[in-house]
Write a structure and sequence with these properties.
The protein has two domains: 5-97; 112-313, Immunoglobulin-like (Sandwich). It is built from seven helices and 13 strands. The chain has helices at residues 5-21, 24-35, 39-48, 55-63, 71-83, 90-97, 112-128; strands spanning 138-148, 154-164, 170-178, 189-194, 197-204, 209-220, 225-233, 242-247, 253-260, 268-274, 282-287, 295-300, 306-313. The strands form three sheets. Strands 4-7-2-1-9-12 form a six-stranded mixed beta sheet, with no helix packed on it. A four-stranded antiparallel beta sheet has the order 8-13-10-11, with no helix packed on it. The longest helix has 17 residues, at 5-21. The model is unreliable at 1-8 and 100-108 (pLDDT under 50). It comes from Streptomyces similanensis. This is XRE family transcriptional regulator.
Length: 315
């Protein structure tokens, strides 16, 4: 939908400000908004410059969840300057200036560096399985049940997925698990619980990232829906303080339930959101802990790009 004159003026002012002061992801987001281009169209324009970048990557770039670093990605940034009618070197300059995480206190939980490193590692693990976010079926619903053990560790989680194929031939889902600092992904176990079986499993010890193929034993046609369940047994790290789920694109409903072992009940729990690893946390809301059921939960009726999670405090 075209911008009204007043909206266009506001968008142009925001873009001018972002190009002067950055950071890169804010300027890129403002430029795309000012031109009124959906990411699919931006991707199409890039192909005309001989550059292939997925919609998911573009989304990550404008959220600040990832930074263009590879030669092909830097070529894409220079092409974006032309596509979005920006001054030459304007985005490249901001990208160079944002080479280090911004100074200042970081939110509690995983560090910026660990999240970015995990994101880069994840891309490599997905490539090893010949998978990409663009190939994944659309998520209509995702319910996670996380267990915290008697030693306050992340003992494991169970996930139920409702997905819909966006093309013919979809026959698998690649699940991602990011263990707590100090975990040993090589000692974790992946279990296919319903309507799937476990395929290849890959992990990266230093970041604690594990990916696993869940095979459907049927080839979905475009528009078909599918329901399946799987679990990851963890329990390999120390004391857990939170559980976070990230998404690179909008999706369906997400529900997260954290259940604590008897005798390991935290004193406080809260939910939070985070737009990207570099962004401050927001949306904090206290969650009552059920002493009888020893659990807390959150529900996102419609998932938005970014991160959502539950944190807790021990005595």
């Amino acid at each position: 939908m075209p911008y009204a004159p007043q909206q266009a003026d506001v968008a142009t002012a925001e873009l001018d400000s972002a190009l002067r002061g950055g950071p890169f992801h804010v300027a890129l987001r403002a430029a795309i908004a000012a031109r009124g281009l959906p990411l699919q169209r931006v991707r199409h324009h890039l192909t005309r410059y001989g550059v292939s970048v997925g919609v998911t990557s573009l989304s990550y770039w404008q959220q600040g969840a990832r930074r263009p670093q590879r030669p092909e990605s830097l070529r894409a940034v220079r092409a974006l300057e032309e596509i979005l009618r920006l001054p030459e070197e304007s985005l490249i300059r901001l990208l160079a200036e944002s080479g280090q995480p911004p100074a200042g206190p970081r939110p509690a939980g995983r560090s910026y560096r660990s999240l970015v490193e995990a994101s880069d590692v994840l891309c490599g693990l997905l490539a090893a399985l010949d998978a990409s976010p663009e190939d994944a079926p659309q998520t209509l619903g995702h319910h996670e049940r996380v267990r915290v053990g008697a030693h306050r560790e992340l003992a494991g989680r169970e996930s139920e997925h409702i997905v819909r194929a966006h093309r013919d031939g979809v026959d698998r889902f690649v699940a991602v698990h990011h263990g707590d600092p100090g975990c040993a992904p090589e000692r974790m176990a992946v279990h296919a619980l319903e309507n799937c079986r476990t395929g290849r499993v890959r992990w990266h010890h230093e970041t604690g990232v594990l990916v696993a193929e869940l095979l459907f034993d049927t080839r979905l046609r475009s528009g078909d829906t599918f329901v399946f369940r799987h679990a990851v047994e963890d329990g390999t790290a120390g004391v857990a303080h939170e559980y976070v789920r990230g998404s690179g694109s909008a999706g369906g409903q997400y529900a997260l339930q954290v259940r604590f072992a008897a005798g390991a009940l935290p004193v406080r729990c809260h939910r939070f959101t985070q737009q990207s690893p570099a962004a401050p946390r927001g949306g904090r809301q206290d969650l009552p802990v059920s002493e009888r059921h020893r659990s807390v939960h959150l529900v996102e009726p419609r998932v938005r790009p970014g991160m959502v999670g539950i944190g807790w405090e021990w005595e």
